[in-house]
Design goal:
Strand order of the largest sheet: 1-2-3-4-5-6-7
Largest sheet: 7 strands, mixed
CATH superfamily of the domain at 29-270: Ribonuclease Z/Hydroxyacylglutathione hydrolase-like
Shape: globular
Order of helices and strands: EEEEHEHHEHHHEEEEEHEEHHHEE
Radius of gyration: 20 Å
Structural class: alpha/beta
Helix content: 25-40%
């Protein structure tokens, strides 16, 4: 989950990777004094998530948890008994509300009576998106698929795929300690500045420790792929790509040599080079989108042109959402127009 469907780092990338291999399952690597890196397996095409463990005077802080699978429960038991020495988890922090990051938060909070920390928007989004039977949700999703070119026979498989993600989360905690952009939070015996961004999600949190030169970046600045920047049925007219591109300015003050700790891939140095790679990647994708739309297309038809090798409802859904993010940016810039055909499908065309 949460994987860009094409690489976004050139062969000449200037990023520096201090570690060549990740920690083995159930083990940790110390990336800075008292800051432990564990890697959890995921049942998706993107097959892992990095989590960060730090001991405080009262117990452990855990940043992100992975999703609810038997394998992940087993890995956590190994970590808790081994590297974490049987200590209690006192604080569970969510960078954002996707299931590979919050899926075991409820289980961990309930087990230890831990405090759950995150942004309000991500907490609300995760509670809604991981519940079955939310009023109006199925109708909105069906309308979204039909409007963007799906045939009726396919919509059922797409809905089933979406339900699978719901079932990979334990119940999301019922309350949070809210954090906001520009604030400061203390964990791991360090003071961290909170950077809240939009684009990949509505209120994604990263954490920057200036004194140690470390940025816990979550999914926002991944080293080799772009996070999914996508439009979904909740906000069909949204412009997450504009939000994502604007967010880069929030990291302009950070020194070039800091250590970036991403949720997927390897820790790296070269934050500003990586931002330029991501900016260039999306600029090229926007140009490609406009070129493809010189012939009128639905969003689904365009997604097949942009991602010709994607198969399966999960990845088709992500491809559609990413395609719409680029379409909506172009619509808002007046580069593309939208028409509705007699069957109610949106048809997009690049203006002459």
């Amino acid at each position: 989950m949460n994987e860009r469907l094409a690489p976004t780092m050139s062969k000449t990338s200037r990023l520096d990777f201090p570690w060549k291999t990740p920690p083995a399952k159930g083990t940790v690597t110390e990336v800075a004094p008292g800051l432990l890196w564990a890697r959890l397996p995921l049942p998706f095409r993107l097959n892992h998530v990095n989590v960060w463990l730090m001991e405080d005077d009262d117990g452990w802080t855990v940043i992100d948890t992975g999703c609810a699978t038997p394998e992940l429960f087993s890995v956590w038991e190994t970590l808790l008994a081994g590297p974490m020495a049987g200590g209690a988890v006192r604080r569970v922090i969510a960078t954002h509300g996707h299931v590979d990051h919050i899926g075991l938060s409820g289980w961990m909070v309930d087990r230890f009576g831990a405090e759950y920390v995150g942004t309000f928007g991500e907490w609300m989004w995760s509670r809604l998106s991981h519940l079955h039977g939310v009023p109006g949700s199925s109708a909105a999703y069906h309308s979204y698929l039909k409007r963007n070119g799906f045939e009726e026979a396919v919509t059922g498989a797409m809905a089933t795929s979406r339900n699978r993600f719901m079932d990979l989360s334990s119940p999301v905690p019922g309350c949070i300690t809210e954090i906001r952009d520009g604030g400061t939070i203390r964990f791991g015996r360090r003071d961290w500045s909170i950077i809240v961004t939009r684009g990949h999600t509505f209120e994604h949190a990263s954490f920057y420790d200036e004194a140690s030169g470390i940025l816990i970046a979550g999914d926002h600045l991944l080293p080799k792929i772009s996070p999914v920047i996508a439009v979904y049925e909740m906000t069909p007219k949204g412009d997450p790509l504009a939000d994502y591109l604007a967010s880069f300015q929030q990291f302009a003050h950070i020194p070039a040599d800091i250590l970036v700790l991403p949720s997927h891939g390897m820790p790296y140095r070269g934050i500003h080079e990586r931002i330029e790679e991501l900016r260039t990647h999306h600029r090229l994708r926007l140009d490609e989108t406009a070129e493809f739309l010189r012939e009128p297309k639905t969003a689904l038809e365009l997604s097949h042109a942009m991602f010709p090798h994607i198969e399966g409802p999960d990845n088709i859904g992500f491809a559609l959402g990413e395609t719409l993010a680029h379409i909506n940016w172009l619509l808002n810039q007046g580069i593309v127009r939208e028409d509705i055909d007699p069957s109610g499908r949106a048809i997009f065309t690049t203006r002459a």
